[in-house]
Amino acid sequence: MTLMLNASTLQAVLDMRSAVQSVDRIFGDLARGTAAQPTPSAMAVPSADSSFIIMPSVASEQGLASVKLLADIPSNAQRGLPSQRSLIMLADHITGGPLAILDGKVPTRIRTAAATAVATKYLARPDSTVLGLIGAGALAVAHVEAMLCVLPFTKVVVWSRTGQRIAEFSQAVAGHGLEVVAAPSPEAVVASCDVLCTLTPSVEPIVQGQWFQPGQHINAVGARPRPGEREIDGIGMARSRVFADHLGTAQAKSGDYLMALAEGSIAADAIAGELGQVVAGELAGRRDRQEITLFNSVGIGALDLAIGRLAYDRAVEQRLGQDVDLSS
Length: 328
What we know:
Oligomer: single chain
Distance between the termini: 10 Å
Helix content: 25-40%
CATH topology of the largest domain: Rossmann fold
Structural class: alpha/beta
Order of helices and strands: EHHEEEEHEEHEHEHEHEEHEHHEHEHE
CATH superfamily of the largest domain: NAD(P)-binding Rossmann-like Domain
Strand content: 15-25%
Mean pLDDT: 96
Shape: globular
Number of domains: 2
Number of helices: 12
């Protein structure tokens, strides 16, 4: 039987603290070789602006093989639809039996925030207390929840293009006991935070590297996996010690990296390594209090696998989801 898990069920069974722990573990597994993460491939035909990205992974500790089919469709904005939609399939890594099919929206949001939290745990100064957010949507709310799992933040400085979005964000995070300050500009956010998260679908750089402060940690998260889109300019990439979620994915799809490289701001070997190497103790993360570190989060299938394992187990325990016999 194959378990079908919709968005509402996934929202019910997943919690952020467990997600952060699962993502931390899978990053280390990638470095240790008990999980495999190939570079994702993309497919497109000229009759539409749609691109379909295949994001596979396999992990022995989690006992799974997984694949996410991510549809990246810029013209969906004109249809009133999300520009990105996805499905995740889980299979037993020994027998190949199909275990579950998941709607991708909730797992993607949660694993993205969890990955940022893991990067912050290993790369930020441990005494960081001020979190800066550029963007105030649902992903920003998830980031607050995730970041509180790894560091004792007391204040959030946030910028958005609309006051309404700031008000909705403030209400959504009110239960965490944080001081929330609305900043007048992205530059003001950067000037006042210890850890920065960029969470916008920006095409042109919304953050300039000349704003970075010594000792800051930056999480570049929001730009879609398109080589021509980025949130951080070339100076920012050059001033930072950069870590990737997966080197091959960053080299294929990270506009932050590829555009800085094309401009000559950085060399091809500008990425210090993968986050998993830091988690596994194979590579030093932050080397001193003054160093600027940057996590280039593009998104990888192994994170979907980790969250899928968690969601599947919880749904089975709670008897949620719909079983379907696909072989009948």
